[in-house]
Design a protein that fits this description.
Strand content: 15-25%
Radius of gyration: 16 Å
Structural class: alpha/beta
CATH architecture: 3-Layer(aba) Sandwich
CATH class: Alpha Beta
Order of helices and strands: EHEHEHEHEEHE
Largest sheet: 7 strands, mixed
CATH superfamily: NAD(P)-binding Rossmann-like Domain
Number of helices: 5
Shape: globular
CATH topology: Rossmann fold
Length: 187
């Protein structure tokens, strides 16, 4: 199976790691233009030593620490339209793990005949879809700069759910919200 992950941050980095661990024969194509910042470390699958590096190059190195023979290609670029998409090799699945509604819509519009999953994470909620209706676009607007344990948990849950979809164990549409449970320790 060949999987293209567009957006290698919160969901994309965890999904790539889970795929490499669970499916040794998977071929990954990682696409992102962003560099890793210190503020990313609380919710993304990177180590401090990669701060300042390209996310796709850092992620490939992290994945090869897990599985040295991992088949991972990288595209350090921003996808803004059909021209850039043509540079991406043919894949079985395209995961839109980007952080803007416009980029998700553009990917859907230009990958019409492909298997595409859109991912959205916020606070204690994640959604995975294979379509984007204009009537529910507001549900896909991310609150920028919100760093928390809830966001990381949503990222990991979304990545695990996508893994189940790729393995044929779950539906291509899912939304999950949960309430935090805090246990107070006795003194």
């Amino acid at each position: 199976m060949k999987v293209c992950i567009i957006g290698c941050g919160g969901v994309g980095s965890w999904l790539a790691e889970f795929l490499i661990r669970q499916r040794p024969q998977v071929e990954l194509v990682l696409v992102d233009f962003d560099g890793l910042e210190m503020k990313n470390l609380d919710r993304q699958a990177f180590e401090r030593g990669y701060v300042g590096a390209s996310k796709v190059l850092a992620l490939r190195e992290c994945l090869r620490h897990i599985r040295p023979d991992a088949n991972v290609s990288v595209m350090d670029m921003k996808i803004e339209g059909p021209l850039e998409l043509k540079a991406i090799p043919e894949c079985d699945w395209y995961i839109a793990a980007t952080d803007t509604i416009d980029s998700k819509q553009m990917l859907l519009d230009n990958l019409e005949d492909k298997k595409v999953l859109l991912v959205n994470c916020e606070h204690n909620m994640f959604e995975v879809r294979d379509e984007l209706n204009s009537s529910d676009r507001s549900a896909w607007v991310l609150e920028s700069g919100y760093n928390s344990t809830q966001t990381m948990e949503a990222n990991v849950r979304a990545a695990l759910y996508i893994l189940r979809v790729l393995n044929g164990q779950a539906e291509r549409k899912h939304s999950e919200k949960w309430e935090d449970e805090y246990i107070e320790e006795e003194d």
